[in-house]
Amino acid sequence: MRRLLVSVMAVTFIFGLASVVNASSVGGDIPEKGELAVGFETNFMTKREVKDVTQNQSAELKSNQYLATLAYGLLDRLALKVKLGAGDLRYKDADEKQVTEEGFLWGIGLDSKVYENEENGLKLLLGAEYFSAGDLDVKSRYLDPNDTLTFEDWREWQISFLVAKDIARFMPYLGVKYSDFEMDYKWYDSSAGTTTTGKKIEADKNFGVFLGTDYRLGENWKLNLEGRFIDETAMSFAGTYKF
User: Fold this and answer.
1) Distance set, CA 118 to CA 115, 123, 233 (Å)
2) 13 φ, ψ to 5°?
3) Per residue in 96-140, pLDDT tens?
């Protein structure tokens, strides 16, 4: 068992580094083959440390997100997940604070159950997810008159590994993840008549931990509560119905 655990964590680490791999939740158990689960997810990211690469300046991000979710069991231990919804972004550095209007968000990923012991309820799961957003326009009251600022091409990659255990109706879990975040912005300065594009914002920390639990409400309904730390400070609440 120890050898399996070490091997899985090593594969996860190597895969994460090779693929440049957030605010989206990791989640607990996955649907079995042929099962469909639909639901909702709310994410509250209260802190993500980033840096403006062009200006060499540190900053912080916050975000509230509201998503519809779908997961489908492709194989006995492999599930596809899709997330669609809306959210905002709040950016703060030493000089200014910017708050965007809500924009469209989407995510897609795969979850794999790499080990399961039905006798003691122990499970090991791997997950990979890509999360993105459309253009997020900053609210006019945070800008100089006639200026415009848009955060563009929000890109997140995440690889996660978790250990879970069934305990009655609960399934608590604990895990580690490697995540990355990149985003560009476009600023029109009306006083100078110039547009600045392509400036890059990226994550300052990539490794994080998370913990949470599933709670089953009968055969079909499930609730999930999760917290994430180090690379980001965030909390998620979700509910799903399995067909």
Assistant:
1) 10, 9, 33
2) -65, -45
3) 899 999 999 999 999 999 999 989 999 999 999 999 998 999 999
